[in-house]
Every structure is written in C-alpha cells, then in structure tokens.
Amino acid sequence: MLESAGILPENKGNDMFRGVTPISLDNKGRLAVPAKYRDGLLSFCAGHLVVTADPSRCLLVYPQPAWEPIEQKLNSLSSFNPQSRSLQRLLVGNASDVEMDGAGRILVPPPLRQFAGLIKDVVLVGQGAKFELWDEEKWNLQIESALGFKDSGIPPELDGFSL
C-alpha cells in the first residue's frame, strides 16, 4: 500500500533484511534483534531505529536513516486530504525512536505493542529496508491468506513475473 502510494523510497540496492525470525518479547516488552542483523544496524544507523504502526496491525521497524525520507514524504502530503491525514496520524503520530541497548535489544513501546497485539510470541519479518513485527498467530494467518491468492488470480502487477 505505501509503496504504491509513492511513500516508500525507491530501493537503492541496500536491502539487508530478509527472512522470518521467531522471537519472544520479555516481560518488559523488549525484543532481542537477531544477531545476523545487529552489526549491519550498528554500522548503518548506530542502533537507532524507528518503530511505527502499520495499517495491517503489525509494526514497522526502520533504521532511522531509512525512516527519515518516508516521514518527510508523509509530512509533505496535504493535511486537507482525509486519507493522507489518516495515514499521517497512523504512521508519523505513532512513530517512536528506539535504540538498541548493549545486548542488542529494543524496547517496543507499550502503545505500539497494544496496537499490534504483541504479548510474547512474535515474528520479525525482513522486508528489505525495514522489518515488520507481527504477533505470531496473526503472522500465520497472513501467510495462510497469502497462499489463497493462487485461487483468486495473480495481481496484475505480477503478470509475467516468474520465480
């Protein structure tokens, strides 16, 4: 949705996050960033991340430098357009700066944990320049739903695409 709206910047070949990693939140709402991403995040953004809400009821986790152009683009949208204003409220209004601690953990803010229904078992899903953070059960439902597209046809933008 955000990509098609022109909100997310074009991929400049700096994709570094891929794969699904099951994680448990601790009782304070912290998650340990998987070791395979820590060094890259420390070198790219010194462990400074931005966590925000997504319309799909998951959370988006961006390295701060990747988030900044998105936030600028969102803030440049007309506040007189109700859809744009709603998107600004959701994404910018919920954006929280977080920092990896010495153990490679980040604290997911309580309002965002509540928004996404994150309690203990979560999955961190690499999406190129960002992560999605899902409640594990909701993620499994997303995967089941994605498997159903084969019955309803391939989206037009994937016509001719091959794996």
Features:
163 residues, alpha+beta, Chemotaxis protein chec, 6-stranded antiparallel sheet, 35% helix, globular
Briefly characterize the structure.
With 163 residues, the protein is an alpha+beta fold.
Task: Tell me about this structure.
The chain has 163 residues and is α+β, with helices and mostly antiparallel strands. It has one domain (17-151): Transcriptional regulator MraZ domain (Chemotaxis protein chec). Helices cover 35% and strands 26% of the residues. The chain contains six helices and eight strands; from the N terminus they run E-E-H-E-E-H-H-E-E-H-E-E-H-H. The chain has helices at residues 35-45, 64-76, 82-91, 110-116, 136-147, 149-152, and strands spanning 17-24, 30-32, 48-53, 59-63, 96-99, 105-107, 121-128, 131-135. The chain has a six-stranded antiparallel beta sheet. The longest helix has 13 residues, at 64-76. Residues 1-14 have low confidence and may be disordered.
* Total count of helical runs of at least 4 residues: 6
What is the H/E order?
Answer: EEHEEHHEEHEEHH
Total beta strands: 8
The end-to-end distance, rounded to whole angstroms, is 22 Å
Write down the oligomeric state. single chain
Strand order of the largest sheet: 1-7-8-4-3-5
Instruction: Report the radius of gyration as a whole number of Å.
Output: 16 Å
Number of domains: 1
Average the pLDDT over all residues and give the rounded result: 88
CATH class: Alpha Beta
Helix content: 25-40%
